[in-house]
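ok so i was messing around last nite and threw this chain in just to see what happens. nothing serious, just curious
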Amino acid sequence: MRTKNKGKRGARTVTSRLFSRVNVALERHLPEQRLFLKSEEGTRFIRLRPITQASMILGSAVFVGWTVIVTSFFLIDTISAGNARDLAQREQETYQERLNLLAEERDTRAAQAGAAQDRFALAMDQVSAMQTRLLDSEERRRELETAVDVIQSTLRRTIDERDEARVGRAVLQNELQADTGTVQTAAERERELEQTLAFLNHALEQTAEQRDTGNTLMADAEQEIIRLNFEAALTEERQNRVFRQLEEAVAVSMEPLDEMFSAAGLDTDDLIEAVRQGYSGQGGPLTPILSTSGETPDDLSMRANDVLRALDEINLWRITVQRLPFAHPVNGTHRRSSPYGPRRGRMHNGIDFAGSPGTPIVAGGSGVISFAGRRGGYGNTIEIEHSNGFMTRYAHLSRIRVVEGQRVSHGELIGDMGNTGRSTGPHLHYEVHRNGTTVDPATFIRAGRNVF
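result:
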């Protein structure tokens, strides 16, 4: 026990000596301070040794440092959050500008398509008028050729009669000179000869007049034929120019449609054949406008029929486009909040477009409403059956504006954006199904930008 007590006293002695040395070392900079406390009972004081002052200064420094670090982190988080909001705002403004540009480009494309249709209608009217004039010119030319043939045959017959009359006059002159001894007297034969000569001269004068008239008519007919040929050449040149313009317009109209179907990865032959079967009746878009009536068609008719077949094909393509979901389903300010594909380990079968409640929702393509009502986690839902096995679904709507069995056109208002069902905010969940399998709707929306 004595040994243990001696050890404890020795440890305390070492500690006291250590504190004394530290106080002596710190006293140069932190001399000992006394804090006097007065009260009714008396005056007391508290000694603040150098080591105590150093501990207080160190504790204050640690507290101030910790406060500065925490404040810095708070300020950094606040600045970062502000930058993130500014960045999101700028991205939204950029996206909105892009949407406005796409809308302007869509309107420009639609205006160009309308202008092309107007030019085509005007060109067809001009072609019809030129064909009418050409047919009239051909008819006049045939009539003039027939008149010339009649005049030539009449002139030949008159010349033959004139030659026969001359031969008969020569025969009569020979008989008169030979004096064959007929019962007629010389005076009677002379009078008869004079009458014959007068008749022949009159016939010759009429023949000469008919010949001159025939020559004049032939000259006029030749001039008319030259003029008609010149007009036909001008008409042909104008028709060629019109057809070149039509062919260029057809090529320009088909290019964006071809690009759209290629971008969507669709087989245009199958789609067009399905539409063609629906328009195979008499008077449909495939009925030829120009008919050759069983005759061998000329180059103009063949060229016109080629242009009309191309225009029929464009009409079929446009009908196909109207029936498929190429139009954007949101007609208002919005942003894409979630793409198609896996999300948090689960498959997201559509695209989400976030926007304000009540934003108009339109049909992506023409079709028939197959469902309009509430469907579990989808909330208020609309489903549209399109042609060629396509179906589109519009979910989380705040209002449904159609009924089942109703036929709608592409771009027609069908509902309002909402927040019904399993939803975290106002948005549209948009799906595209083909033959019962979901596909990425963005493929069709991007492909339809050059058309809608």
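not much to say yet. Residues 281-292 have pLDDT under 50 and may be disordered.
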